[in-house]
Amino acid sequence: MTKENIENSQISLRYEGNEVFLESGGQSMSADFSKMGKRLTHANLTHELIVKAAKIKDFDHVPLVCDATAGLGEDSLLLAAAGCRVILYERDPMIAALLKNAIEKGASSDLSDIREAVSRMEVREEDSITALPKLFEEGITPDIVFLDPMFPEREKSSLVKKKFQLIHLLEKPCSDEDELLNSAVLAAPAKIIIKRPVKAAILGSIKPDYSLTGKTVRYDIILLKNLRRS
Ligand SMILES: C[S@@+](CC[C@H](N)C(=O)[O-])C[C@H]1O[C@@H](n2cnc3c(N)ncnc32)[C@H](O)[C@@H]1O
Hints:
Elements: E1 7-8, E2 11-16, E3 19-24, E4 27-29, H1 42-45, H2 49-54, E5 64-67, H3 74-81, E6 85-89, H4 93-106, H5 112-118, E7 121-124, H6 128-131, E8 144-147, H7 152-156, H8 162-165, H9 177-186, E9 191-197, E10 210-213, E11 217-223
Parallel strand pairs: 5-6, 5-8, 6-7, 8-9
Antiparallel strand pairs: 1-2, 2-3, 3-4, 9-11, 10-11
Helix pairs in contact: 3-5
The structure holds S-adenosylmethionine (SAM).
């Protein structure tokens, strides 16, 4: 995407110096990983539920994660800080621009944990539903596919953090859950991790093998070793 301002009805992107801002109705936001610094220390990372769900020690190599619903990349950052390589798919061009900017800024962060994590993150501005089944053409088989599609109730929640209110103007609640899950299966990972609100129904129609439940979110884990290509 070129560095020109993108306009989409009342929502627009503004480029200023090395920052990209999403703006609408007098509100403005940018994506930045600097506030995540504390969560990336080794001691804190081990308590992150998503890191527990990934079970990185089960792999005898650096695991490759495909985050099929990248958003602003915070979940991917945790996985990258824990040692994974991560390909992040984001289909909305404005969200992808904010995400790329967060990674660019992270590369010159004062915090080495952030610099190292972003060095393992690659953004692809694509729809993962079409991209994941074609990964094998590039000789890529992910170890983990991570899914965190927008959940309708989250959109309405009064608990939604202010910084996410603007981004929710762009995100649509997921209407293609089955397609998303099927694409993840076609990428032939060892496991699929799905982030859901604690009490939400499972995504799609494959029953998870087990779940890890926190205060507000649940990670459903589907083990697919028997679906791996030989
Ligand atoms: C709830 S957010 C993800 C938040 C993310 N886990 C984080 O840590 O910031 C969902 C994002 O997935 C994107 N998305 C949904 N379906 C997608 C698809 N099929 N391909 C690529 N991006 C998708 C949406 O545009 C939205 O930005």
